[in-house]
Amino acid sequence: MQLSAHFEGNTKPLATKKILAGGEGTAILIRLLENAILPTHITKVPAKLICLEGSATYSEVEGRTIDLEPHASVEIPVNHEHAVKADQNGALLILLK
Predict the structure, then answer these.
(1) Which positions ≥6 away from 68 have C-beta within 8 Å?
(2) Is 3 helix (H, G, I), strand (E, B) or coil?
(3) What is the pLDDT of residues 28-86, one digit of tens each?
(4) What is the pTM (predicted TM-score) of this model?
(5) C-alpha span between 54 and 60 (Å, rounded)
């Protein structure tokens, strides 16, 4: 199945879909259109962000930035303010414990 099929008919620049939730954690698929921004926020649980398609830039308020290309990932520290900007249309997967 193409990742875009999860968002058929949704034209918003930022869209999310929970694809797994259970005792082991949660997985959320994130679709970002080019230049879309996932605004600054924090996570209260350990998280890992994985780029599946396209490219994006992960940035923390403290100054660390990471360019994400397909298969690249970043561990997101608990309670660190961060944001994500799509450099091109893409899909990300966030894994929450």
Answers:
(1) 49, 51, 55, 56, 57, 58, 74, 84, 92
(2) helix
(3) 999 999 999 999 999 999 999 999 999 999 999 999 999 999 999 999 999 999 999 99
(4) 0.91
(5) 20
